[in-house]
Amino acid sequence: MSMHARQSFALRTFALRTFALAMLMLVCVPLRAATSDFTLAPLPYPYDALEPAIDARTMQIHHGKHHQAYVDNLNRAIATDATLRGQPLEALLSRMSKLPDAVRNNGGGHWNHDFFWQSMTRPGQGGAPSASLLAAIERDFGSLDKFKAAFRAAGLTRFGSGWSWLIVSADGKLKVTSTANQDNPLMDLATDRGTPLLGNDVWEHAYYLQYQNRRGDYLDAWWTVVDWSVVSRRHAEALTVGASGR
Ligand code: MN3
Fold it and tell me: pLDDT class for 13, splitting at 50, 70, 90?
């Protein structure tokens, strides 16, 4: 090989490698960003849709500031750890006892709020529990009113900040529970684990502008915006998954 041919060969190899590397980066960089970073979804209704139960200003700050901060802080918390990136949030929740507090607080915050927004609809449009869900509620609580009283009590007695939940346990039974801060029943560290059907945010930021210290009034008004069609669908799905897993 002549000197000229060697140089030209080396140049071509270099160009080819550079091209291949550039292509690889083009393909991989967006993939990595798309699969591992979390984003804030828009609310499924306008900010004022839940009035008078929840006022538009509360919804605006709750979704645009609080929920956005959980998303941003979650992305920050996982950014430098390859073992935490590119996974569904539920996969992180199920091994939360082994993860940093920043992932627990913000991962829980992101999941809980997505779930919360989807659980509500305009007053009067939430329908009623399905026949199957109502039967399960009557079996495990005695009546719909007794269930609501238990759920309200869980929210009212949660000291400080947290959530009240209706869950399906592994044995298929319904249960009312509550968690502190941004924990939830999907986390392996939860006292009562199960599949959430309904959750209410009892942090002061969820109601303070409109209700101040009257958490009980917020909890009572909240039933008018619960979307029972969503809760009923979650119940049917939980039973299907539970039955195939047993
Ligand atoms: Mn909140």
Answer: low
